[in-house]
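Continuing the series of single-chain predictions for the mutant panel. This is the parent chain; the variants come on the following pages.
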Amino acid sequence: MNETLLWVGFNVFVVIMLLVDLRVFHRHAHEVKISEALKWSAVWIVLSLLFNVGVYFWYGHESALQFFTGYLIEKSLSVDNLFVFLLIFSYFKVPAQYQHTVLYWGILGALVMRGLLIYLGVTVIQEFHWVIYVFGAFLVFTGVRMAFQKETAEVHPERNIIVRIFKRFVLVTPGYHETKFFLKIDGKRYATLLFVVLIIVETTDLVFAVDSIPAIFAITTDPFIVYTSNVFAILGLRALYFALAGMMNLFRFLKLGLSIVLSFVGVKMLVSELYPIPIGIALGVVAGVLALSVVASIWIKQTERGSNPQDVP
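Parent structure:
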């Protein structure tokens, strides 16, 4: 299949799925229940795996492994975003029925930003191969920093430089007006508080993208594999948020697991010339670390409940 047609076809598919999501299944603002979120999460995971099968037949075994490993890394790292999204929505007291709208447009913006970052990253690596070592060192540093970060993140929207600049030029309403981002009051155009929340979600995701995108360059620098694995990881993020929002505190060791994954892919970059770690081994390490962190989190939680039966609801 022609490379250009493949790119166009994939992006058309993404746009169609987003339109179906917004215009068909979420035409009216409503609180997304866990059952609905789990169904949508399953849909995105199945679509990702089907696409992975397509990659296998189009590009071969190695590319299929690269896609799946990249998807697993980006999906896992995106879970860390969910904790921050939860804090942002709690801080601004965003009604549950409006959260889907913010995440929908936030993820749409994230697709554009990450596409640009991926294009820039691939171009730089192809022109200046030594940058791969900079990315590797950065990921090791990020992984170590994540391991020692406080568990309770804080949100300081008043420090967000983009929000501060925006408020200097645009009037902002103090409350919410359904799912509207802008409205007119007495002939003047105002941005709603919901739009301010969207700005913070977008800038937060940009910060996370700077951390996560270099990670997949340790797996492959093929632009199509990097881009599609990122897109599929992001597309399922919204549904995953609503599925896991009530269970965030269960995965206490996930952050430690993610820090190990980041450090590992950073080391993989740093030793790529001396010893190129096979993609199969990389996939096994990433999947094993993530599985172990989730299992350990659940086991510890159940052990604590067993020792404190009065805490069990």
